[in-house]
Specification:
The complex is a heterodimer of chains A (about 1050) and B (about 400). In chain A, about 25% of the residues lie in helices and about 15% in strands. Chain A is an alpha/beta fold and about 1050 residues long. Among the domains of chain A are: about 160 residues, Dimethylsulfoxide Reductase, domain 2, CATH 3.40.228.10; about 150 residues, Barwin-like endoglucanases, CATH 2.40.40.20. Chain A is globular. By secondary structure, chain B is mainly α. Chain B is built from 13 helices and no strands. Classes of the chains: A alpha/beta (about 1050), B mainly alpha (about 400).
Chain lengths: ~1050, ~400
């Protein structure tokens, strides 16, 4: 017995041997901590040397500066990396980057000087390493097993991937999918061979067959988009898109209509005395999010007041002495803006003198910083052949315009050429006519000192009005009381807002974002808000509106990255989305007219004024309108998740049918909510492993170009020659196999005419970096040896030495060491003016819009801001579509500061703070419906229903329910998949929450199209009518 | 189970929201073992105070207390991956007086162990102990003499003032040991289940009830092992178990009542955890098996039915562990942001130490009982005999 007991004690003690071993010898102290005092806390990257008074770098740590992509703010990052393991230890803000620090560090100051001047990024930025180290990362190419979407995959080699997608054939014969087994896939080679064949001989405007290759990108910007367009251009396809129409494209289009060449303008927050935020609030969304929040907080501390006009009160709308939330009904921002404009005009509280300058020269001569088209005459005779256009000098009997170039109208279209080009034409002032104020007679706009802004009469027999008059009449169409009735903002509040807005001279501004424009009337809402800025003439003034500091070009200079040597023909033809082109110029329209038919409606809408109509890609491809798609390449794209109304079974089944789209390839870092339906998944690199060059957002008043570069080794596998599996490597290998110009040997021309090869991503992006480093003939200073060592760039140069000329490397390393190139802070302002000024005319009236038509109704689009009821594409008012008796609530969405993008679902540190979302219900509605926090409800819409949890809240307009986007995934690691026979379990956290996008209202007259803004091209997120039904006994909130 | 108090409806139904958890199951083991040791020590000291010394429990309870303290320490040392770094917490605690309850634990709990160890020898018959030591080989004799602090040479417990001092210290340290893990948790910030004295009381009284249960269950087993016969537990332990279990149950209910009427959001969120993912354990194991059933058995069975007392004792011991599991694991299951729970999945390291320390906690009392000279007073009813102290004289 004693032996047994002793044995038991022995086992017990022996089992604790590690404990004894750890505690008895005090020198070891168990699991040894890294530091005697600080334990295992983060190893500091600097050590202060009291003797020299400077910080010394920790030799075990690398600090690399790159650019974030946890959202679109593109903040600078300082990435702290363990030199031995190459693993990221921490992500901070880049102190050289304006987004991250108001008094950012001039880039010529050495790195050690930044030790006591850290930069900041938001929680999303800090969490970015979890995106890179997501255990669900795809590391090798995957090919589906079974039907599309069956969640079964097999790993394949890179070589097999390239072979199959290039050569095509019966490449799905071996995957156990009867629907695909006999399909002869064209492949890139087969499609490229048809580059000289028309898509449709009867519709030559559709372009060649190579337009059957479509690139659908989610988030892809600037130099990486340039790279993709290099491929699509060389291949011969016009179809390269990103996601903008599910984001805020109507904002861009409305802005470009008012501020030609710019698709965003922002207030000078730090100089403003009063700001009005429409459809957003600072620090919640908008670009750059954290910078906006920081600037507003600092300005508020100095006495700046602002209001947030939004159906939902966000963090930035907190009530207080300097902040006010003005609740408004969804989609009625235009009505409120026009009411304010009406009061301003009626009470003479607008910058009439400023508006009277018909040209820039006159404006500058009188101390103004910009001019408008307020006085320019527009033809308003419906019978005139140029009805809706500006009256020309010839028509006014003033002779032809002079040929002299006017510097101020030399529109730079560099960005738009590389993005999807807008077709809003930006006519200069030379062929405009005004009524001269001094003489009272018509005069060329360029020759008048001052002109009448209110005129309604006849010039040379043509009935005309000034642009201002047209706007004024639109603003006075309703009384302020009627506008108040529409938008739900009391008359007194409207007057208060108008009075306050006009009480600060030029030091006030209106800023708007998604909430105001993601409506069928979004373009006109946006335009109406812009009008308020024009009325006080705040452009280019401190505290007013600015167009930002601009950027250093990455696409030209030392190397010409725009051109493709050897390219025989640029891609042409109507885009699949029918964007940027007029229906009235199509063969379809012509044939209908020839047959004597009403050419309207078109089968699906055409969008002449907008771009990136992402939501139209899949339905158009399935309907083969205007043509079918042979190869679809998704990149970070998740239309089933993000497009309103499209995550439905009917569309998914159509896309799963290989007869509709024979080959779908996805480039993704994980198996996403949409990429799970692809045939192949190409592993991609995250923002910490990839390249991009991107200009500063317009909020930033100094010039700068951020550089995103691979600060860690790629997580995916690499090719035999060491290139990471990524989008670029895929495109290069396909291009080289096809022999496309612009890839392989002799692909990129430098400024001496020499042709450089393009075999790897760095061959392109390092040259873009060199362009930035040497931009404008002023190269940056060379990187110091200490900075090179701290950033670990010496090995980097050795690795890619042959990608650049030797003399370029020191400056290129300097740019990399700073995460970009940034202008000194002093250039932001020049006295009471902005340092970088917008130099083009500001528009009250868009001729391009006014002379175009809705392709579904034939209705002419008005070219001016006005109040328009939200309606379907055929003009049916939404109120009649889904009556409020049946559908008493309206769904809106918002972007939380902690989620939104799919990749953030892998960031567990963020999910810890906010693990799920809710159906947020206004307190008044909750009382009426008897709902309380945590109740389970069905959100029913005309398109379906989803189940979620109620959160009752104040700060929400009654009749509105909302949810934060970014939750309710079914892919992206949320559900189980099988890879190579091995089951990978899903992560339940990623499935959490509710997503209402799939049940959002679609247009009743166009198959699988969400409600749309026909001018701005936005997919509508804020007009779905809904009702709540208590879901008793439901066990779990339904994700999708 | 019925919701005694209305918790906040869960804002979502998430499980496994990842967050930092300060403790593993090892801390629950530690809490239970120290709780039981404290309970044993308090009851032993009260018995001794009342003169009930010539009993099996008087000699056999302290080996259990000693063993549980040692096994408890092994659990907590295994929990602390850097046990040597405890010294920093200790120094930090004294530097900043308002922090780190551990500074008291590090002094008082070893003192408690030392006191239990020493009084374990003091409780033995000195002559028997001396004979036992004399039989040992010389090197072992020296070691055992030192370990026993030459306890056969003096009888401190026979001296009234010294006895009072020693027993008072034993009671205070026993209460401290049983309460300590609760006090420790109470000082961990931001965990509503922990940040209340109610759970300290629950820990203390389930420890006391468990201690009484071990007098009922453990002492007879050790007696059987060491002396070949079963000892008969005294009926007083029946009432101690009942009283402590009822008190623990009352505290539970008053705690929940208070939350219902006065609890803030954090407390109600705590209720959500208790009645949500931990509802079944709370209902069946803590309240049912651990408190209600034993109370009913003790009430219905009465002290005259030893089987009912024994079954109730088993239930109380089970419940004492379950309540620590719920409070400790449930407490840290709650995400600090208040949304989502982290369900409990023990890893193999935790299971390893739980197993070996359970073996240690069970076999060490047996070994001690087998090795110690227990010749006197055996076979008598525990608590059955009161011994008059010889006043004012220390036996030597």
């Amino acid at each position: 017995m004693q032996l047994a007991a002793a044995g038991g004690v022995g086992i017990g003690l022996a089992g604790n041997i590690k404990v004894f071993r750890d505690i008895i010898p005090f020198t070891q102290k168990g699991e040894k901590a890294r530091h005697a005092v600080w334990g295992n806390s983060d190893v500091p990257e600097w050590r202060f040397d009291p003797q020299t008074g400077r910080h010394l770098p920790n030799p075990d740590i690398m600090l690399r500066h790159t650019t974030d992509l946890q959202c679109h703010s593109e903040c600078g990052l300082r990435v702290k990396i363990d030199r031995k393991t190459g693993r990221i230890l921490r992500i901070m803000g880049n102190p050289y980057h304006k987004n991250c620090r108001e008094d950012y560090v001039p880039m010529d100051e050495p790195l050690h000087e930044t030790a006591r001047r850290p930069g900041t990024v938001c929680a999303r930025g800090n969490a970015g390493l979890q995106t890179a180290y997501d255990p669900y990362r795809v590391r090798v190419p995957l090919k589906r097993v079974g039907p599309r979407g069956s969640r079964r995959w097999k790993p394949i080699s890179w070589e097999q991937l390239i072979e199959e997608v290039v050569e095509g054939g019966r490449i799905f014969a071996d995957i156990g999918d009867p629907a695909s087994a006999d399909i002869e896939v064209l492949g890139f080679k087969g499609l490229y061979a048809k580059r000289n064949e028309p898509m449709d001989p009867d519709a030559p405007e559709l372009g060649p067959r190579t337009n059957g290759f479509v690139f659908q990108g989610g988030r892809i910007k600037k130099s990486r988009l340039d790279f993709v367009k290099r491929f699509t251009t060389a291949f011969g396809s016009v179809n390269a898109y990103e996601h903008t129409n599910v984001c805020e494209v109507s904002h861009h289009v409305a802005t470009e209509a008012v501020y030609p060449t710019k698709h965003a303008v922002k207030p000078d927050v730090m100089g403003a005395e009063f700001l009005m935020f429409w459809g957003t609030s600072p620090g919640d969304a908008n670009f750059p999010m954290q910078t906006f929040g920081r600037m507003v907080a600092q300005a508020r501390a100095k006495g700046m007041r602002y209001v947030c006009i939004d159906p939902v009160a966000q963090r930035g709308s907190v009530q207080g002495e300097f902040v006010e939330w003005v609740p408004i009904r969804p989609g009625t921002d235009g009505a409120l803006a026009l009411a304010i404009a009406q009061w301003m005009i009626a009470n003479g509280r607008y910058a009439k003198s400023y508006l009277e300058h018909p040209n820039r020269k006159s404006a500058l001569a009188h101390g103004e910083l910009s001019h408008t088209d307020a006085s320019h005459l527009v033809i308003v005779d419906p019978d005139h052949p140029r009805y809706g256009a500006f009256l020309s000098r010839t028509e006014a009997g003033l002779g032809r315009p002079g040929e002299e170039p006017l510097e101020s109208f030399a529109v730079s279209t560099e960005e738009w050429n590389m993005d999807k080009g807008l077709v809003l034409t930006h006519e200069d002032d030379r062929d405009r006519v005004v009524i001269d104020a001094a003489s009272g007679r018509p005069r060329a706009a360029t020759e008048s000192e001052r002109a009448l802004i209110e005129f309604d009469g006849t010039v040379a027999g043509v009935r005309v009005k000034t642009a201002f008059t047209i706007f004024k009449e639109a603003a006075f169409t309703h009384t302020i009381e009627e506008y108040s009735e529409i938008c739900g903002v009391p008359v007194d509040k409207i007057v208060d807002l108008a009075r306050e807005f006009t009480s600060h001279g030029r030091h006030a501004a209106c800023e708007f974002y998604r909430g105001a424009v993601k409506h069928p009337n979004g373009f006109y809402n946006g335009m109406a808000i812009h009008m308020l800025n024009l009325l006080i003439g705040n452009c280019n003034w401190r505290g007013g509106i600015g167009a930002g500091g601009g950027h250093y070009s990455w696409s030209s200079g030392r190397y010409d990255l725009k051109s493709i040597p050897g390219l025989k023909e640029k891609p042409h033809g109507v885009p699949l989305t029918r964007e940027g082109v007029y229906y009235e110029r199509s063969s379809e329209y012509r044939r209908k007219k020839e047959r004597g038919e009403n050419p309207y409606p078109a089968k699906r809408p055409w969008f002449p004024h907008t771009f990136n109509v992402y939501s139209e890609l899949l339905p158009s491809a399935v309907e083969r309108y205007p043509y079918g798609v042979d190869i679809l390449l998704w990149h970070m794209a998740t239309p089933f998740y993000s497009v309103p109304g499209q995550g439905n079974e009917e569309l998914i089944e159509k896309v799963k049918d290989p007869r509709n789209i024979p080959l779908i390839i996805a480039s993704d870092i994980v198996i996403g909510d949409t990429s799970m339906y692809a045939d192949y998944i190409i592993p991609d690199v995250t923002f910490l492993e990839r390249w991009v060059h991107i200009g500063m957002h317009e909020l930033i008043l100094v010039k700068g170009t951020s550089v995103r570069w691979p600060v860690i080794d790629p997580i995916p596998e690499t090719t035999a020659d060491g290139r990471p599996y990524s989008l670029e490597t895929f495109l290069i290998d396909v291009a080289e196999r096809l022999g496309l110009p612009g890839f392989g040997e002799k692909a990129i021309a430098d400024n001496s005419g020499r042709l450089w090869p393009l075999h790897r991503a760095e061959d392109f992006y390092l040259k873009a970096t060199a362009n930035v480093a040497f931009a404008e003939g002023r190269p940056v200073s060379p990187a110091s040896p200490e900075d090179i060592a701290i950033c670990g760039l010496d090995g980097f140069r050795k690795r890619y030495e042959d990608a650049l000329r030797a003399e370029e490397w020191p400056a290129v390393l300097k740019v990399l060491s700073r995460g970009g190139r940034f202008e000194p802070p002093a250039n932001a302002w020049n006295g009471d003016q902005l340092g970088h000024q917008y130099k083009h005319r500001l528009n009250f009236y868009s001729e391009a819009v006014a002379t175009s038509f809705n392709s579904m109704t034939g209705e002419r689009f008005p070219g001016h801001a006005h109040w328009r009821e939200p309606a379907t594409i055929m003009g049916k008012p939404l109120a009649s579509l889904d009556p409020s008796e049946d559908w008493p609530l309206t769904i809106i969405t918002y972007k939380g500061a902690l989620q939104t993008h799919s990749r953030l679902s892998s960031n567990t540190v963020l999910r810890e703070i906010q693990p799920s979302n809710w159906v947020e219900v206004a307190a008044a509605d909750a009382r009426r419906l008897g709902l309380k926090d945590g109740d389970r409800v069905w959100v029913e819409t005309p398109e379906g229903r989803r189940r979620g949890r109620v959160k009752v809240r104040e700060g929400l307009v009654p009749g509105v329910i909302t949810f934060s986007v970014g939750f309710g995934h079914w892919g992206y690691g949320a559900t189980q998949v099988e890879i190579g026979g091995k089951v990978i379990s899903g992560d339940r956290i990623r499935r959490a929450g509710i997503l209402l996008n799939p049940v959002m209202r679609r247009d009743p007259d166009v198959w699988q199209m969400p409600l749309m803004d026909p001018v701005g091209g936005s997919a509508v997120f804020y007009q779905t009518r809904a009702r709540l039904v208590r879901a008793e006994g439901a066990a779990h909130a339904e994700a999708a | 189970m019925p919701e005694i108090t209305e918790g906040l409806p869960p804002l979502n139904e998430l499980f496994n929201v990842i967050h930092q958890r300060p403790f593993s199951l090892l801390f629950a083991n530690y809490s239970l073992l120290l709780g039981l040791a404290g309970g044993i020590a308090v009851i032993w000291a009260v018995n001794a105070w009342l003169g009930r010394r010539d009993t099996p429990g008087y000699r056999l309870a302290l080996p259990m207390a000693v063993s549980f303290v040692i096994a408890g320490f092994m659990n907590v040392l295994a929990e602390v991956k850097q046990p040597g770094r405890l010294i920093y917490g200790y120094l930090y605690g004294w530097t900043y007086g308002d922090t780190a309850i551990i500074k008291y634990g590090i002094i008082l709990l070893p003192l408690f162990l030392a006191l239990c160890w020493w009084t374990m020898f003091q409780a033995l018959d000195p002559a028997a102990l001396e004979r036992c030591v004399a039989r040992l080989p010389r090197p072992l004799k020296a070691l055992v003499s030192f370990m026993a602090l030459w306890s056969w040479r003096y009888r401190l417990l026979d001296h009234p003032r010294l006895r009072a001092g020693i027993l008072t210290a034993m009671i205070l340290l026993g209460v401290f040991a049983a309460s300590y893990s609760g006090i420790f948790l109470m000082n961990e910030h931001g965990v509503p289940i922990w940040n209340t004295p109610a759970q300290v009381l629950v820990f203390l009284f389930t420890g006391l009830a468990g201690g009484a249960a071990l007098f009922v269950l453990g002492v007879p087993i050790l007696h059987r092992l060491a002396l070949g016969s079963w000892s008969r537990p005294d009926r007083r332990y029946h009432w101690i178990m009942l009283g402590c279990a009822v008190f623990a149950l009352l505290v539970w209910y008053m705690w929940l009542w208070w939350i219902n009427y006065f609890g803030d959001v954090e407390n109600r969120r705590m209720a959500t955890v208790l009645f949500g993912p931990f509802g079944e354990i709370l209902a069946w194991q803590v309240l049912g098996v651990g408190l209600v059933v034993p109370i009913l058995l003790l009430l219905i069975g009465g002290p005259r039915r030893p089987w009912a007392t024994a079954v109730a004792g088993l239930g109380i011991l089970w419940g004492a562990y379950a309540v620590r599991f719920v409070i400790l694991i449930g407490g840290q299951a709650l995400n600090h942001s208040g949304a989502g729970y982290l369900s409990f999945t023990p890893d193999h390291v935790v299971l390893w130490y739980t197993t070996v320390d359970a073996i240690l906690a069970l076999s060490l009392p047996a070994l001690l009982a087998l090795l110690l000279p227990l010749e006197r007073g055996d076979g008598q009813a525990d608590m059955g005999t009161e011994v008059r102290h010889s006043e004012g004289r220390i036996a030597s």
